[in-house]
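DM from R.C. (forwarded with permission)

"hey, sorry to bug you on a friday — could you get me a structure for this? deadline for the figure draft is monday and I only need the backbone to look sensible"
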Amino acid sequence: AALGIVLGWLCWQSRSIWPAVLAHVLHNSVVALLPRVGDWLGMDFADLSTPAHLPIHIVVPGLAIVVAGVLLARRPASRQASP
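My reply, with the result:
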């Protein structure tokens, strides 16, 4: 959510989506490479080899929010009456 707020602010301030796209790519790159840094430096960080699953009380509301967002995005734009 915090990244979404920051990326939205970037779009709003720059009036372009590209700074937010670049920031998102940089964020994902850092997150993807961070576990490898420990291997490269010979340090042992948290063991990420075993996958952890989200509990159902997190998955169900998240899925409901995604479905609601898709439905709202598909809703036709309201037309204003012309004077």
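R.C.: lifesaver. Residues 1 and 36 are 25 Å apart (CA to CA).
me: no worries. The mean pLDDT is 78.
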